Amino acid sequence: MNAPASPKPPLTLYLAAPRGFCAGVDRAIKIVEMALEKWGAPVYVRHEIVHNRYVVDGLRAKGAVFVEELDDCPDDRPVIFSAHGVPKAVPAEAARRQMLAVDATCPLVTKVHMEAARHHENGLQLIMIGHAGHPETEGTMGQLPPGEVVLVETVEDVARITVRDPERLAFITQTTLSVDDTAGIVAALQARFPAILAPHKEDICYATTNRQAAVKAIAPKIDALLVIGAPNSSNSQRLVEVGRAAGCGYAQLVQRAADIDWRALQGARAVGLTAGASAPEELVDEVVDAFAARYDLTRELVETAVERVEFKVPRALREPA
């Protein structure tokens, strides 16, 4: 006679909302899919279109070829610039080679590029708050000549930087930073350089801000937080940091359900779940199913904002071939 199956332990899964795809990511993925439909495979993409392996692998299976540099693209096939944006020299080189180029840069990143150009035209030197080596930071700094943008990553950096004229400065930020950490760096900049100009409108994008606010809302209710996202996704990494800062003793980034460390969750009665702006909802469903297989699961939605932002794809893709 078989022993009765042991009952599943109870667990409440708090689902943060908003989570997952933002309008810029949704648009970038659409651009690759529409380019493949319009021009056929292969279509080349400079850098991962968004930072998510599941998304990139899905597009690769449809015929997208991901490369790191324009040198790796042939002249006679379309090339798409990723959602993170590219230095000014990249589209200039594509034009010189007479390539068919489509820009999938998020419009909110383009806004920062335009802001930087406007300040430069007015004779100001820029200070950028961002992460060294991130493609968005490189793309934004690459809008202006060398030396015109000084990068700071921490409050400590602010004390160390040298500027041309403390009275002629403006600052910009990467769009995917921690709202709280950035506020500290801004305060340090304004204390050291009282004349520094701030953005007319916050550079950190609505999606980053909303996802961080949702994590803060669920943090007091949970024993652990899981963030679905890629290790190279800035906004996903920031969600983990926000969770820890808000009191989550265990906050972990996972790419798929297979990455969950179930031993670390032993004894947890409430777990929070969110997804970075480049993680699709299919991966959220996959993780929820994995919890349902192991626990007597109660799902709770914690919604702190409703997003209705939508960005159009470039006209070149909407016109017939």
Could you explain the architecture of this structure?
The structure is a single chain. The chain has eleven helices and twelve strands. It has helices at 23-39, 53-62, 89-96, 107-121, 135-141, 155-160, 179-192, 206-218, 234-245, 281-294, 315-318, and strands at 10-17, 43-46, 64-67, 79-81, 101-103, 125-129, 149-152, 169-173, 224-228, 250-254, 270-275, 296-303. Helix 4 runs parallel beside helix 5 (135-141) and helix 8 (206-218) packs parallel to helix 9. The chain starts with 9 loop residues before the first strand and ends with a helix.
Topology:
Blueprint: E1 10-17, H1 23-39, E2 43-46, H2 53-62, E3 64-67, E4 79-81, H3 89-96, E5 101-103, H4 107-121, E6 125-129, H5 135-141, E7 149-152, H6 155-160, E8 169-173, H7 179-192, H8 206-218, E9 224-228, H9 234-245, E10 250-254, E11 270-275, H10 281-294, E12 296-303, H11 315-318
Parallel strand pairs: 1-11, 1-12, 2-3, 2-4, 4-5, 6-7, 6-8, 9-10, 9-11
Helix pairs in contact: 4-5, 8-9
Oligomeric state of this protein: single chain
Q: How are helices and strands ordered from N to C?
A: EHEHEEHEHEHEHEHHEHEEHEH
Structural class: alpha/beta
Q: Please report the total strand number as a whole number.
A: 12
Q: Which regions have little confidence, pLDDT < 50, spanning 5+ residues? A: none
Helix content: 25-40%
Query: CA-to-CA gap between the ends?
Result: 68 Å
- Mean pLDDT, to the nearest integer, reads 96
Count of alpha and pi helical runs: 11
Largest beta sheet: what is the strand line-up? 10-9-11-1-12
Rg over CA atoms, rounded to whole Å, is 22 Å
Largest sheet: 5 strands, parallel
Shape: flat
Q: What share of residues are in beta strands? A: 15-25%
